[in-house]
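Notebook, p. 212. Picked up where the previous page left off. The plan for this session was modest: take the two constructs that came back from the sequencing core last week, fold each one, and keep the raw output in the notebook itself so nobody has to go hunting through shared drives later. Recording the first one now, exactly as returned: residue sequence, then the structure token string.
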Amino acid sequence: MDAEATHGRNETVRIPKSCSVYNFKMKIIYIAGPFRASNDWDRENNIRRAEGLALEVWRAGFAALCPHCNTRFFNGAAPDDIWLNGDLAMLKRCDALLTTPDWERSSGAKAEVAFAKTWEIPVFYSLNVLVEHFQSIPTCDHCGVATDMQPHAADCIDAGGN
């Protein structure tokens, strides 16, 4: 059975079961790097640097989660710990973390890297290494689960599920 989703102005979009999005094949990559800065110009440059890396992640065939873009205009709208805790909640659901080149100058990015390591989320410091890593892992053509993970999901299309 295909899934349906409402998109835009009450338009229904059919998502065929064979669609990689429906089958969760696409890996989600969290972008970690400096956000806060002493002035608006430097903060915007931090955001743009993360945004540029996120674009490269998308171009490489992954979904990028760039928290910098989520809260770009929220400065001062709520305490910082709300954004930071929310970022960690999103990170926990990601397949990997990728850092910007200047991530080490950010206490928030350092905390995100430490969090990822604690939760055994792979951390990458280079997009090329991230791409090589995920290309080297054999996955089920139907559900995207690493085939070396045992047992394989019983409800996978390949295993006779719907």
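Okay, moving on. Second construct, recorded in the same format:
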Amino acid sequence: MPRPAALARRIDSVRVVNMLSGAGYADPPGQLAARLGLETGEQLYTTIGGNAPQWLVNHAADDLATGRRRAVLIAGGEALHTLRLASKQGVDLAWAHGRGRAVMIGDDRQGSHPDEWRYGLQMPTQIYPLFEIALRAHERRDPRAIRPTSPDSRRAWRRWQRRTPRHGSGSKVGRGDRHAVRRRTA
């Protein structure tokens, strides 16, 4: 197993999943590479899309298997909560704004149909229930079969709760103070 410094020298591609928040970065992969002291190499930033992380992994695996790349760093993160909290508190986040522009990869077509936009259906939480309803109708299941108090629903929620990590305050991932504004570095 290579040591971290030896591995870092082998990284010849930095690929970052697009941040919905933008987080103020003009060139996330370039800024990450600079921050980590990596040699200049390929630096790619995805378009917005729910399959971007897996897409990056698949392409990295292909590039590594064919020898086009020696080592690939794939990164991602989101700062929506931090940005909203900073805005509410009037805190200026002095994050770096790169001078370059990231090289974009991926499919930049609109992810939904104009009819979906017309009816306010852009988020997975708005669209997935429609798939569930259609699936139940197709399978001729009672649409009321899974209710919050039904045994099926209770079993599903118990499985989900067992798999969801809890943090200090007992809050679920994405809640609590781990995104506190006082942490001002990327």
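Notes on construct two before I forget. DSSP finds seven helices and four strands in the chain.
Flagging for discussion at group meeting.
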